[in-house]
Amino acid sequence: MLWLLAILPMIVVLIGILYFKQSGARMAVVGWLVTLALACTVFKTDLIVAGGATIYGLLKSFGITIAVVATMLMIFLMKEIGALDTISEAIKRVAATPEQQAIFIGIGFGSFVTSLGVVTPSLFPPLLVALGFSPFAAVSVSVLGYNATTSFALLAIPLTLPADIFGLDLEMFTYKVCIYLPVIAVLISFAMLWVIGGKESVKKGWIDALVAGLTIGISCLVFIIIGVPVMIIGVLAGMLTMGILYFYSKYTGKLPKFDEPLDRKKIMKAMSPWLILITLALLISVPAITTELKAVDGVAITILGEGVDFDVLAQTYTWIFISLLVSLFILKPTKEQLTNVFNVWKVRIWGPAIAYSLFFSIAYIMAWSAMHTINSTMVPVPDFANLNMNMVIGNALSNTLGAKFAFFAAWLGLFGAMVGGSETGSNVLFYPIQKQAATNLNYSDAEFMTIYGAHANSGGVASAITPSKINNAVATIDGGAELESQVMQKHLGIVILITIVIGIMTVAFLAWGV
Predict the structure, then answer these.
(1) I want to staple 59 with a disulfide (CB 3.0 to 4.6 A). Which of 212, 272, 308, 471 is the partner?
(2) What phi, psi does 480 have (nearest 5°)?
């Protein structure tokens, strides 16, 4: 029953959020303590290793955690000075109904800015509330919408990082992810309509959902086939989707007419933090510039032989802060407004920061379990293959499921994203589990890549129920633990359904040799 103990921390987290209505931040602490205790007792992990894994996880989460708190500061400022109200009025001119707005913002704009490294659970909830969405709908759209293209987040780090670490063919890996997207994107688009208004919203917005889902899913697949650089596929797909949705609404007469002309100068001023950030993010996405920025930054830390290179100048969070500072000269907030923003920000950032950080720590404790130290370097214990928490789960899956593993492999991506807090964490930390199980079952390298593509997609879909992301979104509108639980409960069924579809597609792709 070791496999059950290996997954116990996340079972505890889910029960705490769903049934006891505890916050994601609080359950992150509980999950970390449970993981630490199990690793050091049942799974024979040296306490120094477990402590090192905790610190390493905190450091590895630094990029996403700081990006979250930076985005929160930006959005709180935009809300305080009224910029979000101005932007919301502009959005109503390109997407009139709540259904159109949810699809346009969640699927199109969400994919676009997520690909550039902006954290939409930090960015969107206040904007959607300003548009008239309920707190529940605002959080749902923020954490659900961009999930089809989560693999292309942060200029495609979820794909490029595991490809670099494990020596994978990046283009092949990306292609295997993209073959799922036309179906997944459509399902997510319809799911978004369902959560904001049930059958009535689906009836009103099904064409928009179908157009958006097919556009973003098919475009990603076409882009990788024709050789578009992986780093910008999500950016281009998001832009194309927004454009198609706008022209569809315009030429079908769905857009309302306004007596007053659009004040473009006022809108540009309100959107200045985003426009500056988008410009800078596009610049640092140029490979030559990225390489130069990384060369300048020499900040690195080693924990038990494992290095962490911060690459501060190449990280999106640095440019979020810079964008925010530059935009101050355009927005010109008063001293009182800045004080109000800082007071709100310093209170609300702790929950998301704790949640993101500790879920990374949980993932690394699991990855480093069944290790001890010799001369400050980690080495496996004699029975490592049977005691490492990840290996235990992988072996249990292959031994129990056998030929059915292809269908259930996607569930490991779902679990991995919940543990690691993101698809990137899932793809990197749970690769050994998938590889071990696939090797045990004699899958070829090509077949394994199809399975790993399913893993990545289900990890992306898991963003809809990842405690750290939900906690982050709720914190931006000062919602409570009960709202987190409500969102988790509503999204859980959606995520399970989509993961089942991914499993069916995986079996079909393997049978067809795709």
Answers:
(1) 308
(2) -110, -175
Query: With 80 as the cut, is the pLDDT of residue 299 above it?
Result: no
Residue 95 DSSP SS3: coil
Left, alpha or beta for 146 (phi > 0: left; psi -120 to 50: alpha)? Answer: alpha
First to last CA, the chain: 36
d(CA 134, CA 285): 35
Domain assignments of the chain as residue spans, ordered by start: 2-59+356-512, 82-262, 271-332
Contact 69, 353 (CB under 8 A): yes
Compute the half-sphere exposure of residue 172: CA atoms within 13 Å on the CB side of its CA: 13
Dmax (CA) of the chain? 76
Q: How long, in residues, is the chain? A: 514
Provide the residue type at 108 as one letter.
G
The whole-model pTM stands at 0.84
Q: 412 pLDDT exceeds 90?
A: no
418: enclosing H helix or E strand: helix 405-420
Which of 228, 127, 133 shows the shortest CA–CA distance to 175?
A: 228
Distances in Å between the Cα of 126 and the Cα atoms of 17, 24, 88, 191 are: 23, 19, 10, 21
Q: Which secondary structure element, helix H or strand E, spans residue 125, and what is its range?
A: helix 120-130
Q: How does DSSP assign 194-263, residue by residue? A: HHHHHHHHHHHHHHHHHHHHHHHHHHHHHHHHTT--HHHHHHHHHHHHHHHHHHHHHHTT-SPP-SSPP-
C-alpha 314: how far from chain center? 19
Taking alpha carbons only, the member of 290, 288, 312 closest to residue 299 is: 312
CA distance 355 to 362: 11
Residues 197-240: tens digit of each pLDDT: 999 999 999 999 999 999 999 999 999 999 988 888 998 999 99
Residues 6+ apart with CB under 8 A from 458: 410, 411, 412, 413, 414, 417, 498, 499, 502
Rounded alpha-carbon distances, angstroms, from residue 408 to 19, 98, 317, 404, 480: 26, 36, 36, 7, 34
Handedness of CA 66, 338, 264, 133 (dihedral sign): positive
Strand, coil or helix: 307? strand
Q: At residue 436, what are phi and psi to the nearest 5 degrees? A: -60, -45
